[in-house]
């Protein structure tokens, strides 16, 4: 134990593949130790630490400047947790105390499935990135619904809907999960953009997507309390495909679009794991995903709420997404390198940036610098 602590102290004072800028010493030590483990095992331990109360919580973070409304959801701040961190809705209460304005769990499929073989999660520390090829590993909608039924009521919680790999009707799977879990949710996300389930991204085509969304929206309308439904898209779509996405979103009366999921692009990476199969997230995705976000904002005339995801690890990047057209943002991969203390740091920085630009509320900044990204 003494050797491990000494190693951690050394890692806490040098980069050691971890960002850690501004993080408390205890968090820096914890991150350094986790980065010495297999990434998937480290992720499991991080979730366990969160559930055990070993991760300091900042509580609800809000202010008149940060409070906002997204597709009818009232958020204390616009900083959300992206899907994938808490796949099975196991850490809802501690996450609700971690400062996020909204939390998205999942993806959840109708039946439990093991996902792809290990190893399937890779840190690219030199690039501040992550590659995963999990393949929707999860415990299924029955287990998720039981946990969501006991969720904290004072948080905004959504579920990422997925389809089983061996399903005969993947489009129906999304509607089934929503019908089963929807009563416990504040919003739901249709995820047809994961690159890790074979042919799933084929559902982003206009005809297939329209049919899929029709089923999902029918399931939503049967809920006692219909909730907002978002569509999460890939960053690798061309302009014609983005035009189709906007048209389909309007036709389906979606509540908004989440832009974007992980990318298959590997340009500019230097880490040895860069050629691993799977979806890339983290810092290299920031520019690509923000350009897609700005284009969607332009195509929709700013009339479809957008949630910006991809490469956010600072207040400046969160603000850039908002100025490009996002009503709110989500992050996940940056937590691997910065820890949970990143959330209050981004919130404080975002407050300062908004004030500096003369905005009394974050919603005034939405799309204000969109042209910079087009």
Provide a brief overview of the structure.
With 374 residues, this protein is of the alpha/beta class. Helices cover 37% and strands 15% of the residues. α9 (286-299) runs parallel beside α10.
- Please give the largest β-sheet: 8 strands, parallel, barrel
Report the portion of residues in β strands.
Answer: 5-15%
The radius of gyration is 19 Å
CATH architecture: Alpha-Beta Barrel
* Total strand segments: 13
Instruction: State the fourth-level CATH superfamily.
Output: Aldolase class I
Mean pLDDT: 92
CATH topology: TIM Barrel
Structural class: alpha/beta
Going across the major beta sheet, what is the strand order? 3-4-7-8-9-10-12-13
Descriptors for this entry?
374 residues, alpha/beta, TIM Barrel, 8-stranded parallel barrel, 3-stranded antiparallel β-sheet, 12 helices, 13 strands, disordered N terminus
Note down, in words, how this protein is organized:
The strands form three sheets. Strands 3-4-7-8-9-10-12-13 form an eight-stranded parallel beta barrel, surrounded by six helices. Strands 5-6-11 form a three-stranded antiparallel beta sheet, with no helix packed on it. The model is unreliable at about 1-20 (pLDDT under 50). About 35% of the residues lie in helices and about 15% in strands. α10 links the parallel β12 (about 305-310) and β13 (about 330). It has one domain (about 60-374): TIM Barrel, CATH 3.20.20.70. The termini are far apart. It has twelve helices and 13 strands. The chain is of the alpha/beta class and about 375 residues long. The protein has helices spanning about 1-15, 25-35, 40-50, 90-95, 140-150, 170-180, 205-220, 240-250, 285-300, 315-325, 335-340, 340-355, and strands at about 70, 75, 80, 100-110, 120-125, 130, 155-160, 185-190, 230-235, 255-260, 280, 305-310, 330. The longest helix is centred in the middle third of the chain and has 17 residues, at about 205-220. The chain is globular.
